[in-house]
Write a structure and sequence with these properties.
heterodimer; A: alpha/beta; Rossmann fold; 39% helix; B: 0% strand; globular
Chain lengths: 145, 323
């Protein structure tokens, strides 16, 4: 058992990130891109890697207030992600709806539809905050492995 | 019996199998680390690919309902095994020479095509439209680069064979031995077109950025690998790590084997393979954008093929002039 735990300690150093854009204004998506591309915030030093396919993902980052149009697609993509996975809501929109709150066209807050583990508030959140959120998600992911 | 055990050890332990896997993953790690440094980032630890592989072992393998399950799951396995065998076919100058019963350069050429074919099968068996696009792109790219590599190998084989008194040799061991005595083909002006063509070929075969069109994650979401998850995806990672060792090892054996023996030769070989990886793959990867499939296809049918034909012609003419 200790050997398996040791292996899990290694496995947890390779969290692959996947972004679901739930009708976001792209502000948060730009901030997510900075965590990958700007040398100062390099998220790859945590072993993270943005991957193109939901099947490769470990940590899901959801941005945007989840518009009605995108709800079905987002839920289908979310189900494609193999377990164990961790969900992070990035930005204030998925948490409460933000400026789109009480609009007829959005389904925020998204925790009605997805089991959100970490909230990263902000409009948009700072890259440091996103990286902290990812670090917290990694800690949760370790328990689920 | 002992030779069979030796062959088995060569495939499973050294220089194939475990050794090639560890070396390939370390090369991938060095590639990612140096790429990050070239972009001014900190980058992942050197052993990141090992973590990735362990992680994939803990994930679930999902098979899409539209997929053909047998082919979908067999493709990564076949590709990895083909690469394990071909890693045992690569000689390390002064350290290891492959058993002639295991195969020669021709067998190696066929085995080198297997990972590409496995990716095509995987893409088409996954039942995903992105996989199908990846399949067609992989096939176009393979058609474009398989011609040059055959001609490069023929040029090197003819150069060695004619110097040794027969027509052409397909024994990598003989090619390595000839160069250990007479100097690298890298410094032989007649072989320069072949060297240049090989320099174009290996980034395409390894599927890195200017030529990673079949797996372009921003266009076709990693193409054939899109539907893979968990251990099956891990096997594809193993396959590509082994492929890096095989292709770079082939380059070293064809053009620049070291004239030493013993530990020095082994360390020198490791240095050569790391330098080839960092110069030919990492530096290229971070400094180039991705080509379109039609551009890459035309490019490969134009320059590397032309260079490879020129090199075969040059070798033939040089031999004709000498006799």
């Amino acid at each position: 058992m200790t050997f398996i735990n040791k292996l899990k300690d290694f496995a947890v150093k390779s969290p692959w990130l996947y972004r679901i854009n739930g009708g976001s204004c792209n502000g948060c998506d730009v901030e997510l891109a900075t965590t990958a591309c700007i040398p100062r915030y390099d998220v790859e030093r945590l072993g993270c890697q943005y991957c193109g396919s939901p099947r490769h993902a470990d940590i899901v980052l959801i941005t945007g207030p989840l518009t009605r149009r995108v709800l079905d697609a987002a839920r289908r993509v979310y189900d494609e992600i193999p377990d164990p996975k961790v969900t992070v809501a990035v930005g204030v929109c998925p948490i409460s709806g933000g400026i789109f709150r009480e609009s007829y066209a959005v389904c925020a807050p998204i925790d009605q539809y997805f089991p959100v583990d970490v909230n990263v508030p902000g409009c948009p959140p700072r890259p440091q905050a996103i990286i902290e959120g990812v670090a917290k998600a990694i800690a949760i992911w370790r328990q689920r492995l | 019996m002992t030779s069979q055990i030796a062959t088995l050890l060569a495939v499973l332990l050294f220089p194939g199998g475990l050794f090639a896997l560890v070396l390939g993953l370390a090369l991938k790690g060095a590639d990612r680390r140096v790429a990050a440094r070239l972009q001014g980032r900190v980058g992942p630890p050197l052993i990141q690919p090992f973590f990735d592989l362990i992680k994939l072992g803990f994930k679930r393998t999902m098979v899409p309902t539209e997929a053909s399950e047998t082919v979908f799951l067999a493709a990564p396995l076949v590709g990895s095994v083909a690469m394990l065998i071909s890693a045992a076919l690569i000689p390390i100058a002064g350290v290891y020479a492959p058993d002639t019963e295991l195969g020669n350069l021709l067998v190696l050429l066929y085995l080198l095509a297997v990972p590409g074919i496995c990716l095509m099968l995987a893409g088409s068996a996954s039942g995903s439209p992105y996989g199908a696009i990846g399949f067609s792109r992989e096939m176009a790219l393979m058609l474009a680069y398989e011609g040059p590599i055959v001609l490069i190998v023929a040029a090197v084989g003819m150069r060695t064979g004619m110097a040794e008194g027969h027509w052409v040799t397909f024994s990598l061991t003989e090619i390595v031995r000839y160069q250990q005595v007479h100097g690298w083909f890298l410094f032989d002006p007649i072989m320069w077109p072949a060297v240049a063509a090989f320099a174009f070929f290996y980034p395409a075969n390894l599927g890195i950025v200017p030529f990673d069109i079949p797996e372009a994650e921003t266009e076709v979401l990693e193409g054939p690998l899109l539907e893979y998850s968990g251990p099956a995806l891990g096997l594809f990672k193993v396959m590509s790590a082994l492929k890096a060792v095989v292709v770079l090892g082939l380059g070293i054996a064809l053009f620049l084997p070291l004239p030493f023996t013993g530990p020095l030769a082994f360390v020198g070989w490791l240095v050569e393979i790391v330098v080839l990886m960092l110069v030919g793959v990492t530096a290229l990867r971070v400094s180039a954008g991705r080509m379109r499939i039609d551009q890459a296809f035309v490019f490969f049918l134009k320059w590397p093929l032309l260079l490879a034909i020129a090199s075969v012609a040059a070798v033939a003419l040089a031999a004709g002039g000498a006799s």
